[in-house]
Amino acid sequence: MNLNFSLIHRKRWQLFVQVLGVMILAEGLMLLAMHWLLPAFGHAYTPGHIVADVGLMSLICAPILWWAIVGPLFHAHQQADDKFRSVVEQSLAGIYIYQEGRLIYANPKLAEIFGYTCEELERIPPLDLVAPQDRAKVTENLRRRLDGEVEDIAYSFQGRRKDGSAIEVAVHGRRAVIMGKPAIVGVLLDVTEQHRAIAALSDSETMLREITTVMGEAVYALDRDGHVIFINPAAEQLLGWRREELLGCHGHETFHYKKPDGSPFPRQECPVFKTIQTGRTYRSEEDCMVRKDGSFLPVTIVSTPLLREGEIVGSVAAFHDITERRQAMERIQYLAHYDVLTGLPNRRLLEDRLEQALARAKRNHQSLAVMFLDLDRFKQVNDTLGHDQGDELLKVVAQRLTASVRQEDTVSRLGGDEFVVVLPEITSAGDAEIVAQKIVEAIRSPVKLESRELHVTTSVGLAVYPQDGGDVVSLMKNADSEMYRAKESGRDRYCIARASSL
Fold first, then answer.
1. Global confidence as pTM
2. Cα separations (Å) of 193 from 120, 167, 199, 230, 337?
3. In order of start, what are the domains of the chain with their CATH numbers?
């Protein structure tokens, strides 16, 4: 069916009929007027007059009406017809009219999309243009519009070209009434290339996720505004978020917003944000992510700008969980400064703390005390009960020593059964003697090991700054000497350097 005749020329005929009706009405009015006027002037109004009047009126009115109304209207419609035909037939989208189970019009672009001529499209069943698996969907969408359930529907389906090849098409059709019958006027686009591009992009993203997963690195990407546009499974696992939860979220505000101490992490300090702003690659050996459950994840992170045609469009960040490495470093630091058996500071940490305490005492003109002590006859415990029980005894002694002093004091194990106690910021040697006696009494209390009750004692040597030495070496030496004097004096006691006792 010709679209121009069905949609436009019908309007022309309607206009012509309307003009003809106006002419007939005008002639009727003239005949009526003559019927009354002629008798008024003494003339009879005969049938001959009627014929003459009609003919004369037609000769006068027809050219006037054509010149004044019909001609310009037909000309305007002709111009509109040309413009409409130009738009439809030169459209970059396929345009069609579906009515009574067939296409009553198809423009050249629609024919080009499916590889047919316009005439062929108007002859073949429309469902021949649809892949078998999508015919039910297309049929249902046509029915819903023709039945008036919906006015318009936009959807996509797989089409079939004349040569049998498959194409992806998107269609948008609206219900219309043409020549008194329901029809569908629609637009159709070939989106095959777009589908291929989307599929290729999806394949690329899948490949990237697989590659980054095999690499073992956690990777995510942000757009120019800092929103997550990519995250691989390793990052999902470490952060505790699913990919669907993170895509579109602001990365920094979601999992990089606070420091391990709980304080806010300003966006300006974030290495990933710096990359977006400056276009430079940033590396942080000690950084921290926040998991979904709010716990902290220590990481190293490298952030690189994401460029497209030379412009920064975002950033890609790779991070690695350093929890085990940090724990190993902390363990190494611990072993370097603490005794493995008792958990007390070792000789290295003791000397460092004693140096600091001595410096404060000199600066503030205060006193401090150093105590040397070991257990009396500890070798017999090891020989009788074994080294395991001896170790248990040393743990108990360490606990009693710690409980006998202030929090700011230092209790250290040098090795074996030898311990050192540092008492900073005391007012006099008498303060140190009170603590020394308290320690002797605490160690004297019975110790239960494997249903046995042990009675152990300790000998304590005491030296006080500044009377007994002005440096670490002197104080330690004098305290050690006093400890041996306590043993020679009968054990289970303390001795203080003579200078301090004066």
1. 0.50
2. 25, 9, 10, 24, 67
3. 3-86 (no CATH), 94-190 (3.30.450.20), 216-325 (3.30.450.20), 338-501 (3.30.70.270)
pLDDT in tens, 25-83: 665 665 555 555 556 555 555 555 555 555 555 555 556 555 555 555 555 555 555 55
Q: Is the peptide bond before 126 cis (omega within 30 degrees of 0)?
A: no
pLDDT digits (tens, 9 = 90+) for 258-306: 888 888 888 888 888 888 888 899 888 888 899 999 999 999 999 999 8
Please state, in angstroms and rounded to a whole number, the distance separating the CA atoms of residues 364 and 465.
13
In angstroms, the CA 172 to CA 188 distance is 7
The torsion region of residue 84 among left (phi > 0), alpha (psi -120 to 50) and beta comes to: alpha
Q: Are 189 and 169 in contact (CB under 8 A)?
A: yes
Give me 294's structure tokens: 């709010």
β-bridge mates for residue 177, sequence order: 182
| Cα separation values, 95 from 91, 106, 122, 354, 420, Å | 8, 6, 13, 92, 96
| Two structure tokens written together for 22 | 């106006």
| 502 vs 485: CA distance, rounded Å | 17
**Which of 73, 104, 138, 114 is closest to 4 using CA atoms?**
104
Give the whole-angstrom CA distance, residue 101 versus residue 95: 16
Among left, alpha and beta (phi > 0; psi -120 to 50; other), residue 294 is left
Element (H, E) at 283: strand 282-290
